[in-house]
Amino acid sequence: MERKHTFDQVAEAYEKYRPAYPSELFRDVQEYALLQPGDPILEIGCGTGQATQGFVQMGCDTITCVELGERLAAFTREKFKAHPGVEVIQAAFEQWEGAGRQFKLAISGTAFHFIQPQELGYRKVHKLLEENGVIAFFWTVHVPSYEPVFNEIREWYRRFAPNLEDSRKPAVEQVIEQRVEWTERHGLFRDIRAKSYRRVDPLSADAFVALLATNSGHRLLPEADREQLFNGIKETIERHGGTVSRPQAVVLVLARKA
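-> structure tokens emitted (258 positions)
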């Protein structure tokens, strides 16, 4: 199974445990795009509508969401049933034709990297945007902590999932550099800007493991390895007081159609 297909199995848990995007991010997008209520927005990979919610709360609720997962699409459709301007289409973005629509803003929250090849994704978005339309793609980025509890957690990863051990992950600055390079590669977009937002979330042992269980890499582990990994992580956190302070970042890349 491809990683992008794993999220459809855990729609409810994804909604419950994945952290919300910062409100400042939505304000920055609105300001850059000069977004007004009623302006058409395209969302690529809406998941459970966490990013959708941020724009709806600003009164910008004319949103066409294209979501691969059948359960995720149904979940988000039900979530926004009181907002008739929010349309959820269950389809792969790569195959969706757009029905001749044009959008002022295209957004994607922790999803656009799954569009392959990336060149196809950026060219398709460019085609779907109106003149001077804007992209706002953002990603939640893991930030390693080297507090004793996390050092012990790494030992469990080295035993049962060494490829997921977080000291191997790119730093926030590397993610920004990569995403900006993707955006400017084919000359389709201009006025590229990037920003990161950082936070620290306190999580109980149960919540920490439940959050990990929504991650595609963890879901693809052999069941026995995943169970031993999660049991070890939970035991470690409980031995260190029952909660951890988990740092994280969100990276935003903004650009305008060239």
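The longest helix spans residues 223-239.
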